[in-house]
Amino acid sequence: MMFEWVLKNGSTNKLFSGIQDVICKTICREMTLYTAPPNSVICYQGDFGDVFYIIISGQVGLYVEEHDKKQSKPFEDDLKQLMQSALLEDMSSSHATTSDRHFVGHNPHLPKQFGKFIRFIGSGGTFGELAVMEPTAQRTCTVVSTTLTSFICLKRAAYQRLVRASNGDTVGFTQYEFLEDLFYFDSWSHGDVQRFSNKLRQVTVAADVRHRRSFSTPEYMFLEP
Question: Which segments constitute the Cyclic nucleotide-binding domain (predicted)?
Answer without folding.
Answer: 15-163
